[in-house]
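For the sake of clarity, the format in which proteins appear in this thesis is described at this point. The record quoted next illustrates the convention:

___
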Amino acid sequence: MNHKNKISKVLSLTAGVLFSASTMAANWNIAVGDGGGSAQEALGLKFIEQLEAKTGGKHSAKLFLNGQLGSEQDTVNDAAIGTLDFSILASNNLAPFSPTLGILSLPYIFENLDQAQQTVEGPIGAELIENTIRDSGVRILGWTYSGFRVLSNSKQPIRQLADLDGVVVRVPKNEIMIDTYKSWGNNPTPMAWSETFTALQQGVVDGQDTPYTTIYAMKFGEVQKYITDLHYLFLLEPLIISESLYQDQDAATQKAILEAGQEATAYSLSRLKEKEAMIKKELVSKYNMEIHSLEDEAEWAKRAQDAVWPKFYESVGGKEKVNALLRALGRDEV
């Protein structure tokens, strides 16, 4: 073998070793919409812990909080084209890319936490995961259980539907949620999550709805006074991975990623049960917020279901899909 061939062989072997090393170990990036102390962060930290444990430290990841890597909807695009590894985001921000996920945002589709868990961890959830891979090029690995979205505002206590009149509410750029507020006679303001705190602080909008855990993590108590204990939407926030990245992994790594997602989901569920009551007390004691119950929530539910559900039957997979979910939850069909 001449000198030139020897050099070529060494370079080839070196490149092969470097390539193998790059495919054997990785430190991935996870975009997170919410800040420190949030349910999203907790899910992400548990996922990283389990990923490292299940791969013997070969794979790890880093969280980027507060939308550092872009808006939640932007991160779906980035993951789909392979420029972002993972993201944790609200299901309503993933639904524009995979419309059948909109079934999770139909107002009053879930009456409690158990129904939400039964849905996403059962056959319906498995179908939604497959639909999301097909539609958007990302795979759901786990679910953040964040709780019901409650309504906060700085203007006045809201105990009845009439009290919502004149309150300017920020909502995500999600058609189901926008139309839900319209069904209550309100004209909501669609706005990116990253702009919400400043808009509340400056009085551009009076209020917003997110779970108690998010209100606390985002320090909304600094710019909001009143909370209404609303139950129209149980917020589920999936952890997604770029499908191309997932398919690039060997079988053992894929298994570890999936199992880490399952472990993180179970942890998120237990954390919500443990933390939510404590957080409600903290919002009152630390920020002097007032928490009010609705006196006429049945009317809120009726208006939203009558006006919103029929409009979105087709996009979520058909009326029969909604009835299949209602049957699975032991509820009356529509």
Summary: The longest helix spans residues 251-287. The chain has a mean pLDDT of 93.
